[in-house]
Write a structure and sequence with these properties.
69 residues, mainly alpha, CD2-Gal4, 3 helices
Length: 69
């Protein structure tokens, strides 16, 4: 007699899990996050990464020539 006690099937019928999640894109990252390639939340005057580290947070706009790749 074989049983399926070792195999647990989890059927979750929540409608939230049916929708694929896409990460929210920040329009501009601060200089620190851009240099370290961190996910910047884009909060102003200071993002959470800079705020946590106690460093000044600076946003420098990217020129139009760099955006057209």
């Amino acid at each position: 007699m074989s049983t399926a006690a070792g195999k647990k099937q989890d059927y979750n019928t929540d409608s939230d899990e049916d929708i694929p999640r896409t990460p929210r894109r920040t329009p501009m990252a601060c200089q620190f996050c851009r240099g370290r390639k961190l996910k910047c939340d884009g909060l102003k005057p200071s993002c959470n990464n800079c705020n946590r580290r106690g460093i000044p947070c600076a946003y420098v706009p990217v020129s139009a020539t760099q955006q057209q790749r």
